[in-house]
Amino acid sequence: MHKIALNFEDGVTRFIDAAADETVADAAYRQGINIPLDCRDGACGTCKCFAEAGRYDLGQEYIEDALSEEEAAQGYVLTCQMRAESDCVVRIPASSQVCKTEQSSYQASISAVRQLSDSTIALSIKGDALSRLAFLPGQYVNLGVPGSEQTRAYSFSSLQKDGEVSFLIRNVPGGLMSSFLTGLAKAGDSMTLAGPLGSFYLREIRRPLLLLAGGTGLAPFTAMLEKIAEEGSEHPLHLIYGVTNDFDLVELDRLQALAARIPNFSYSACVANPDSQHPLKGYVTQHIEPQHLNEGDVDVYLCGPPPMVEAVSQYIREQGITPANFYYEKFAAAAA
């Protein structure tokens, strides 16, 4: 069996298992997900999707009108013909509701809550149900705020291990989740989460990576780096982590440990406040070196507040460089 991640256009991700002799469309249908489908014979193109990662066989039983040679070379597939030869990620050009599926909900309990600094809280939750939770590193879930009907979106900062996952949460004065975590939360408290969600996740590594994190935008990258540490990569990876004040810097020991596990991974951290005591001052863009952009043969991943995302985008344009791929996620803190 191979695991197939189906990413729908509304941000919902569902995972299915597919046997080697089973088409992805048949495997999805068997597990209650109706990928758009019509002829089932490779003739209509209704089930055309895009394979972002993984090895697969498309066979020869489809016609040019349904899938051209150029499209197949680009990574497009017909799920009625596609048979997985490894774990795969497939982008579905339809909403999860159209495909008669929805985000999954899970119940778990707080296993640890720690205030890493005045601005950052580390939260871990654990439960038997989470042992079935699958997600792509970089994705997020909606965490329910206990005592309310509201949710907040947070990226996983770790992979799932033994039914436990972790998050880095910005401590927002007056924030609904922040107030709960700093004033009421204790180990054993119940929490709900729904997902996974999001199109910001680690793709197959085919060239050097430049990872740019702002504040708690570090969270998806620590999950990505855990995955890379497990699987390895022959390409160089560099992370630049920027914060506003010295006390905002967190998880540096963890980054150092990841650097020890990933031979071609390097990182730097910078602080914007000019009165900082940290060796590297300034914004992330001031520490992007020409070799990091590799004349455009680079995949850039960026996660941070909207002003940072816009500043980095503008900086790269000003360099006259177009990265092979540029993935980004903006986030903004929510108050009460």
Automatic annotation (TrEMBL):
Residues 2-96 form the 2Fe-2S ferredoxin-type domain. This is NADH oxidase. InterPro entries: 2Fe-2S_ferredoxin-like_sf, 2Fe-2S_ferredoxin-type, 2Fe2S_fd_BS, BenC-like_FAD_NAD-bd, Beta-grasp_dom_sf, Cbr1-like_FAD-bd_dom, FAD-bd_FR_type, Flavoprot_Pyr_Nucl_cyt_Rdtase. Keywords: Iron, Iron-sulfur, Metal-binding. One of its GO terms (molecular function) is 2 iron, 2 sulfur cluster binding. Its cofactor is [2Fe-2S] cluster. The keyword Nucleotide-binding does not apply. Residues 103-203 form the FAD-binding FR-type domain. SUPFAM superfamilies: 2Fe-2S ferredoxin-like (SSF54292), Ferredoxin reductase-like, C-terminal NADP-linked domain (SSF52343), Riboflavin synthase domain-like (SSF63380). It comes from Pseudomonas alkylphenolica. PANTHER family: NADH OXIDOREDUCTASE HCR (PTHR47354), PROTEIN RFBI (PTHR47354:SF5).
